[in-house]
Amino acid sequence: MMALGIGCRKGTSANVVLAVIDEALQAHGLKLVHPLVVATGGIKAGEEGIREAALKLGAEFVVLSDEALQAVASLTLTRSEASLAHTGLPSLSEAAALAAAGPDARLLGPRHVSQGVTCAIALSENMP
After folding, report:
1. How many CB atoms lie within 10 A of CB 77?
2. By CB distance 3.0 to 4.6 Å, which of 17, 20, 108, 114 could disulfide with 53?
3. What is the spatial distance between Cα 18 and Cα 60, in angstroms, rounded to a whole number?
4. What superfamily in CATH does domain 2-123 come from?
């Protein structure tokens, strides 16, 4: 399965989120794989741009608990002071991708940052 962890500035549109997802996939030479999950943390649960992007991709939209995100925080590849200040996580998008993809998940690399959106990609053999 593929999990896309997403963070964004408040009010970011679905079209911008989708464009950044496409950039991140292209950077890794990938296409979308189903089952597909688009995940974020509770702090971004109300961001309609993320929710709408998941719907357009035919993906499950998951809002992860702070506990689930903290459980994988030490596995993130990026340490963002801005993310730490706002979410308490070194990278919300990387933690969301890892937590959503399950215990055998691996990040493909550091998060992709563009247009006020962060997108991290994690792959796993099993769903949590």
Report:
1. 14
2. 17
3. 15
4. CobE/GbiG C-terminal domain (3.30.420.180)
